[in-house]
Amino acid sequence: MNDQADDLRVSGLTKQFAGAAGTLDVLTGVNLTMQRGDAVVITGPSGSGKSTLLYIIGVLDEPTSGEVNVGGTMPLLLGAVEQAKFRNETVGFVFQDHHLLPQCTVLENVLIPTLAAAKPASDIEDRARTLLDRVGLKDRITHRPGQLSGGERQRVGICRALINEPLLLLADEPTGNLDQKTAESVGTLLLEVAAEQNTMLLCVTHNLDLAARFPRRYELTDGKLADVTE
Q1: pLDDT in tens, 40-51
Q2: pTM value?
């Protein structure tokens, strides 16, 4: 760890893909800083590299060059085992598809990321129940995903992402599979719960209504981030 003020620092990030027509530059020097409690959204056309950027920050992909610093840790420099530990303890993921296990209950799905944690089981379950209560699913904890609506499944996904109290919450099109009314509700919940948990929230989305509700907004075009906050 170090004493830098920024909890997230992305510096000079580039990503290239080799193709039949030559090299494709997806990210061409992305810089971004966030502090605990910040909520940032990134928009941009399809194929602009939004999800790629998110996955690199979450150590699910590797850049061609550049650095990522999360709370003083340089996760891209870690070995595979240490990266897995970093993801589990420091980063929470909310995807467009909830990725819930159909055979597990709501409570069990939320608890899955804690299986590698060294915290008392009773404390972890209490936190899971508190989170589920916060998102309005107190009476659904014994249900399985097939018994839930799309919006309810995504709320379970938010709780699962927050169960290990991550420093950074990454959301990739979190309302992409939801109707407009449900998307609005889930978007509100995502922003509120992230603020209550005092975590950094970094979201990429095509939903301009959702994007407009973030205090800091960026657009990714031609491989670079531009601040479009009004």
Answers
A1: 999 998 888 999
A2: 0.92
